[in-house]
Amino acid sequence: MVLREQSVSPPAAVERESALGGAASGTFPPGFLWGAATAAYQIEGAVAEDGRRPSIWDTFSHTPGTIANGDTGDTACDHYHRYPEDVALMGEAGLGAYRFSIAWPRIQPEGRGPAEQRGLDFYRRLVDSLVEAGIKPVATLYHWDLPQALEDEGGWSNRETAERFGEYARIVTEALADGVAMWTTLNEPWCSAFLGYGSGVHAPGRTDPAAALSAAHHLNLAHGRGVAAIRAATAAPVTVSLNLHEVNALTQSAADLDAARRIDAVGNRIFSGPMLDGRYPQDLLADTRHIVDWERLVRPGDEEAIGAPIDVLGINYYTPTLVSAPESVGTAAAAGFEPAVTHGVSAHSPWPGSESVVHYQPAGEVTDSGWAIDPRGLYRLLTTVHERYPSMPLMVTENGAAYPDGPDESGAVQDVRRIAYLQSHLGAIGDALADGVDVRGYFLWTLLDNFEWAYGYSKRFGLVHVDYATQRRTPKASLGWYARFARENTR
What we know:
Helix content is 38%, strand content 14%. It has helices at residues 40-43, 56-61, 79-93, 104-107, 117-132, 148-151, 160-176, 189-195, 209-233, 254-277, 282-288, 294-297, 302-306, 329-334, 375-388, 416-434, 477-488; strands at 3-5, 33-37, 97-101, 136-142, 182-187, 238-242, 247-249, 312-316, 321-324, 338-339, 358-361, 394-398, 439-445, 464-467, 472-475. The strands form 3 sheets. Strands 2-3-4-5-6-8-12-13 form an 8-stranded parallel beta barrel, surrounded by 5 helices. Strands 1-7-9-11-10 form a 5-stranded mixed β-sheet. Helix 7 (160-176) runs parallel beside helix 9 and helix 15 (375-388) packs parallel to helix 16 (416-434). The radius of gyration is 21 Å and the shape is globular. It starts with a strand and ends with a helix. The relative contact order is 0.16. Residues 2-25 have low confidence and may be disordered. Keywords: Glycosidase, Hydrolase. GO terms for molecular function: beta-glucosidase activity.
C-alpha cells in the first residue's frame, strides 16, 4: 500500500519541499485538530491503586533485562494523581485536543467481568476536566496494556481476547460516551503483534512467528468488535491508529522491489487490507502460509467484521523504512548505507515470512532514538495512502522526536532541535493538504517526557520536561512554538 522505490542515490525531493520556516499562514483548514498524545502505562503510574491489576507491561518491565536501566512504569509521570496540572498545561498552551489511552486493567482488572467503577471514575474526571478546559478528549481503547490475566490464557494469540476486548469496549464507551469527542480502537497493532509476540522486545516478550501472525489477526478482529461497540454507544467518530511503514526499496531491481513488497505486506497491508479493503492481501497469505494456517485462523465473517467502516484513519509516522534483498548488501555498502537492527537486543525477527529482508539506516540526521529524520517520508506516506483510499480522511495521530534537552541555568528548556523537527514535518503536512490530501488533525508525540517502553526513561519525546525524582513539570520551548504555529497557520 505504501511501497516506494528508492535508488541508492538520495531520493528526489517532493515537488514542493517543506520550508523550514513552517507552512504559510492559513495552510491548515478550519476545524483542524491540534493536539498532543500520551498512553496510559507511560504516564499514569498508580499501578496498584483503585483496583487496578497488572498488565503485560507491568510484568514485562519487572522482568530483568527487558527495559533500559531496569526502569518500570510504576510511577511514571504520576498522571493518575497529577492530571489536573497536566490538563492545565494543555489549556494554557491552547491545545485543541488530547489523545490519551484508557488502561484496560483499570476497567476490568482481570480482563473480563464487571467494571471497576473507581477506574471508570478516573477517566470520567479526566474527560470532564478536558471538556471544561475546551480541549477535545480523543480516547484510545488499547495502547498495549493487556491485562496480564488474559495473557496468561494466551493473550492476543488467543481468539478469545478479541471477544473480551469487544466487551471492554462496550463498557468504556457506554460510560464515557457523553464526553469523548473521538474514539480510537487500537494504537499500532503492528507493535503489539510483532514486537510483542515476534521479536519479543515489547511485552509480553514472546518470540513465536505463528503467535505473532495470530495476534495480528486477533487484533484486527478486536478492532472490528470495538467499532461495533462504539457505534452502539455513540455517534462520535471512530478511528484506528496504524504505524504504517513508509517502505522504500534500495534499488529498482526485481529482488529489492520484492523485498519491499514483503515488508509492505506484513508491516502495513496485514492491517489496512482487512480494515479498509475487507480482506487480507493474497501475497501476504502466500508469504506466510508456511508459518500459519490462514484458513483455520480466519473464520467466516471475520473479514466482514474487521472491515466495519471507520470515519478517519490515524497514521503514526516517525521515520522511513529502507530495505533490500540480501544480494544488494554490497551495493548498499558502496553507497554508504549500513544495515539497521530492527529488533533491538532480540535475535528474533519481527517480520515473519520476510526474515531475510535487509533493513538499512537511511542517510542523514537522526534523533536521540537513532531514527532518521525525513519529513518527505511523511508527505509521501500521506499522499500514497490518499491515492489508495481517496475518500478516507486522514489524521496524523503520532509524530515527534526524542532529544535529551533539560533545563538550562535559567530553568528554561530550549529544545531547538524538536522545534526544527516540528517545523519540517508540519510543513510536509501542509504540502499534502495543498495537494488535496484530506488531513483532519495532528497529535504530537508526546505531551510529557515519560516511560518510553523498552527505552525506559532514557528518551525524552515530551513538550513538557518531567523531573522524575520530583515530578516537576517544565514546559519546553517547543510547547510555546507549537501553540503559536497552530494559531497562526489555521484559516
